[in-house]
Amino acid sequence: MENHDTTEKANYSIMYILAVICGVLTAWVLTGSILYILLGAILGLLTAGFFKNVLMKNREV
Predict the structure, then answer these.
(1) pLDDT per position as a tens digit, 13-58
(2) Nearest alpha-carbon partner for 48 in 7, 4, 15
(3) Does 42 reside within a domain?
(4) pLDDT value at position 57?
(5) What is the DSSP letter of 31?
(6) Do residues 23 and 45 touch, judged by C-beta distance below 8 A?
(7) 5: confidence class by pLDDT, cuts 50, 70, 90
(8) What are the Cα distances from residue 20, in Å, to 27, 31, 61?
(9) 19 neighbors 44 (Cβ within 8 angstroms)
(10) Confidence (pTM)
């Protein structure tokens, strides 16, 4: 008999997309500068990665 893992893996791609959108919108509202909008997108991605890899590392979905 073969043992297969039937549990589905969580899809975190929507979390990364929302993090980029929120980072861009926040930077746009606060500054309006293109440079800060790009920085907001990068910081949004870093925040989502930190949340997924550190805070939710051992949690079941």
Answers:
(1) 888 899 999 999 999 999 989 999 999 999 999 999 888 888 777 7
(2) 15
(3) yes
(4) 76
(5) T
(6) yes
(7) low
(8) 11, 16, 22
(9) yes
(10) 0.71
Residue 45: inside a domain: yes
Q: Quick check: 2 pLDDT over 70? A: no
| Per-residue pLDDT, 40 | 92
Domain that holds residue 32: 19-50
Classify residue 23: in a domain, yes or no.
yes
Q: How far is CA 32 from the centre of its chain?
A: 22
What whole-number distance in Å separates Cα of residue 40 and Cα of residue 4? 41
Number of domains the chain is built from: 1
CB half-sphere exposure, 1, CA atoms < 13 A? 3
Lookup result for tokens 């549990």: 7
Q: Has residue 56 been placed in a domain?
A: no
| Greatest extent of the chain over all pairs of C-alpha atoms, in Å | 61
